[in-house]
Amino acid sequence: MAAQIEIHGYKLCPFAWRTRLAAHEKGVSFEWFPADIPEPDPRSKEHNPNKRSPLLRHGDFTVTDSAVIAQYIDEAFEGPPLQPQGAKERALMRLTLLDLGGIVFDGRKDLDDEARARTGAALAKLEAKLSDDAPWLGGAEPTRVDLEIWPFLANLAQKGGLGVDQLPRVARYWERVQARPSYCETNPYEG
Q1: Do residues 103 and 174 touch, judged by C-beta distance below 8 A?
Q2: Dist. CA 5–CA 19, nearest whole Å
Q3: Is 153 in contact with 177 (CB distance < 8 Å)?
Q4: I need a surface site. Which of 79, 122, 145, 179 has the fewest CB within 10 A?
Q5: 30-34 β-sheet, strand order
Q6: Contact 135, 176 (CB under 8 A)
């Protein structure tokens, strides 16, 4: 089956990773074009000459920004919804994303004291938002709010900053994330 979209970006870029997660969860076939390898595919230079990460190409339509890409994938293709249908629920999802923004961590850097404090506070918020009644922040299935934080949780785990000893809900959530096929099949740390 031919890929429906192209996703371009840097291998370890968490923003590019979450676009691949969104496509995988939506059931959209994609071709991945890493820009930061010794010999990138020639189409990468043609379709993404500025090496934007991430960049989505669908036919002759090109879009950047991971949040916009995830929304586009959700709205342009059939498949499981990645965001709530109602305006109020979508607003609450966006507020949750803002509330968990402290989880955003660049895995290329080391965790300094400021990053540890910021991510620790955000992980405490994640613990409070997770429910024993639903496996994901979005309910029974992962939604954009889940997909958008997974790469950053992975970055924290890579740097030893995902201390879940005192966060039992986050610990169980992280186990589910690591077992999810979309996570396993798009994980840049495993390839």
Answers
A1: no
A2: 11
A3: yes
A4: 179
A5: 30-34, 5-9, 55-58, 61-64
A6: yes
**Domain spans of the chain, in order of start:** 5-81, 87-186
Q: Which fold has domain 87-186?
A: Glutathione S-transferase Yfyf (Class Pi); Chain A, domain 2 (1.20.1050)
Q: What is the per-residue pLDDT for 1?
A: 67
Query: Which pTM was predicted?
Result: 0.92
DSSP the chain: ---SEEEEE-TT-HHHHHHHHHHHHHT--EEEEESSSSS--HHHHHH-TT--SSEEEETTEEEE-HHHHHHHHHHHS-SS-SS-SSHHHHHHHHHHHHHTGGG---TTS---HHHHHHHHHHHHHHHHH--TT-SBTTBSS--HHHHHHHHHHHHHHHTT----TT-HHHHHHHHHHHH-HHHHHH-GGG-
Work out the pLDDT band at 9, boundaries 50, 70, 90. very high
Per residue in 143-174, pLDDT tens?
999 999 999 999 989 888 788 889 999 999 99
Residues 5-81: name the CATH superfamily.
Glutaredoxin (3.40.30.10)
Write down the residue that tokens 């997909």 correspond to: 147
Residue tagged 């934007």 (tokens):
52
